[in-house]
Amino acid sequence: MGEVIIRAEELTRLARDIKKASNAPELRKRLSKELRVAAKPLVPALRASIAQIPSKGRPARKGRAPLRRLLDRSVSVQVKTGKWATVRVFMNPKKMPDGTKSLPGYFEGITGKGVLRHPVFGNRDVWASQLPRPYFARGVSGAEQDARAAIERVMEDIAKEIE
Question: Contact at 8 Å (CB) between 56 and 66?
Fold first, then answer.
């Protein structure tokens, strides 16, 4: 799946330094919260990119949400401050319904052979082919630098507090 991962060595070092601090649980909790807030601007940027995926305007099959809405719901932010500290914005396949978990990768063009084949409205006698519609890199490209800068500010603030 498409993802933006920030796993700077400095972030991992900071997470290890927090363990040694006297108020470690409080600092770790604050670091996680502030890193999540710093990465949040990537989410609406990515969702806006998903909304721009071309659609023929046909209604979704009865009982199913439109594909763009499903993709929109699968956008996730993950922060880890353990052995390898990471901030990650990604398309979470666990949030996709059964049978559609690989669609974010197909739409981005990183899964499959470059073409998504599927039955038309569930009719297994009629199949269609679709080209990828990359959305992830386009969606996060503008907001990624701002998020990285915000994450660096958070790291600096916590590091100063530890010292």
Answer: no
